[in-house]
Amino acid sequence: MRKIVAGLFQSLDGVVQAPGGPQEDESGGFAFGGWLVPHFSETTGAFIDEVFSGAFDLLLGRRTYDIFAGHWPKIEGDPFADKFNAAAKYVLTSSREPLAWHNSHRLEDFAAVRALKETDGPRLIVQGSSTIYPGLVENGLIDRLYLITFPVILGTGKRALPGVMPGAFRLVDTRVSESGAIIAVYEPSGEVRTGSFALEDRG
């Protein structure tokens, strides 16, 4: 069975929209595209290199797929680009538009994701694609989640993990970068547990 490793870049107020460039996603009039770039550092880069080391395939939503497909095939002579271009790309989408990027495959629903997860093969890495997270969590498909939180408040934009059902996670790794970004890696740990700090009534 494959493992699904999912990751998001987010601001302090939980915005995940267009971290990598001004034209990445301007929907809703978002004006801060590329907000991550000034805060990227050696530590952050080294962690991303670890995530994408070894064999992997990609599991993507359609918007992120289109962004990646418009970028990575144009990059030559870069080992990271070579990995992305060679990997199988599994795209969770209702669109029937062709998937032109080499080695791309359409998945109709989360049942298809589960069936893929149950096959033999390399890890499935989710990058970006925030709209598919609620379904992945609801269906118990994520094995490891990493969040990289950057020291900036954006005030507007698409948020991380919108509408995700409740669940508990345990921290398995954490790092702090030179630029103040916090890297936190989590694994699911069951249901949300509650308690109370209220003082016992001794009346």
Structure in words:
The chain is α/β, with parallel strands linked by helices. It has one domain (4-188): 3-Layer(aba) Sandwich (Dihydrofolate Reductase, subunit A). It is 20% helix and 24% strand. It contains five helices and eight strands. The protein has an eight-stranded mixed beta sheet, with helices on both faces. The radius of gyration is 18 Å and the shape is globular. The protein starts with a strand and ends in a 15-residue tail after the last strand. The model has no long low-confidence stretch (mean pLDDT 93).
Name given to the CATH architecture? 3-Layer(aba) Sandwich
**CATH-assigned fold name:** Dihydrofolate Reductase, subunit A
Q: How many separate domains?
A: 1
Helix and strand string, N-terminal first? EHEHHEEHEHEEE
| Gyration radius from CA atoms, angstroms | 18 Å
Q: Count the DSSP helices.
A: 5
Shape: globular
CATH level 1 name: Alpha Beta
Question: Helices and strands in order, then pairings?
Answer:
Blueprint: E1 4-11, H1 42-51, E2 56-61, H2 62-69, H3 79-86, E3 89-92, E4 104-107, H4 110-117, E5 123-127, H5 133-138, E6 144-150, E7 169-176, E8 182-188
Parallel strand pairs: 1-5, 1-6, 2-3, 2-5, 3-4
Antiparallel strand pairs: 6-8, 7-8
GO molecular function, one term: 5-amino-6-(5-phosphoribosylamino)uracil reductase activity
Protein name: Dihydrofolate reductase family protein
Domain Bacterial bifunctional deaminase-reductase C-terminal: 2-176
What are the defining features of this structure?
203 residues, 24% strand, 5-amino-6-(5-phosphoribosylamino)uracil reductase activity, Riboflavin_Biosynth_HTPR, Dihydrofolate Reductase, subunit A, Dihydrofolate reductase family protein, 8 strands, RibDG_C
